[in-house]
Amino acid sequence: MTPAHPAYAQLRQVTDIAAVMLEDNPGMMTLDGTNTWILRAPGREECVVIDPGDADEEHLLRVASVGPVALTLITHRHRDHTGGIDRFVELTGSPVRAVSPEFRRRTDAGLPDGELIEEVGLAIRVLRTPGHTLDSTSFVIEGEGSVLTGDTILGRGTTVLDSTDGDLGDYLASLRSLIDLGTGRTVLPGHGPDLPDLQTVAQQYLDHREQRLDQVRAALDALGPGATARTVVEHVYSDVDESLWPVAEQSVRVQLDYLRR
């Protein structure tokens, strides 16, 4: 039988080109774990890997064993996507391209927005989608049309914007860029299951963010313009389990930065 999500330690084929190896690192921020994506053109042995994952030896060995890795691409800087880079390069010899020079290996090439990466029979379009982090990047598989969204869009739930370099204005613009790609594109996320239509999900994300912004604006009207993120969380997220409030507070802090500019 074809494995279904979540499928640890198994290569799960999702589209004709894209397969996923789910790392066994579940958590509040990683959902079921980190998705390492393996892209291979029909009839080709070599592949391109997206996000090797954290420093999990068994996971890295499994990914390295799927075939010669011609290139590794990074969606963003978080450790659950990048912690295993050096070991993965040791195992595969693959060059690694990333927005941040910190994560590049065996190449100086970054990921300029709009670049078409043509490698081992694949055509992968770079789409910069900052917001979750400053370096967040999505990849469009040309021809097939599926999109690797990293943590910009998840397989379930909503994305938390990093309070250090996340930016809500950037994130809203990135969601609109994903919507503009059109209908019928499969979402291949950094966490959670794949989804059938990117435009629908991105629009839902955008609507949700705008609704939350309206709620935060109303909270500031009620509490005063100098209200703290924690006070706003208690006001807006009263229907959410308190164990999730620290994560909500991080999101509210980003929203307040956006509204107070």
From TrEMBL:
SMART domains (alphabetical) = Lactamase_B (SM00849)
Which Pfam family would be a valid example here? Lactamase_B
Instruction: Enumerate the Gene3D superfamilies for this protein.
Output: Ribonuclease Z/Hydroxyacylglutathione hydrolase-like (3.60.15.10), Winged helix-like DNA-binding domain superfamily/Winged helix DNA-binding domain (1.10.10.10)
In terms of domain of life, where is this protein from? Bacteria
**Matching InterPro entries, A to Z?**
LACTB2_WH, Metallo-B-lactamas, RibonucZ/Hydroxyglut_hydro, Sec-metab_biosynth-thioest, WH-like_DNA-bd_sf
**What region holds the Metallo-beta-lactamase domain?**
33-191
Q: Which PANTHER family match?
A: ENDORIBONUCLEASE LACTB2 (PTHR23131:SF0)
Protein's name according to its UniProt entry: MBL fold metallo-hydrolase
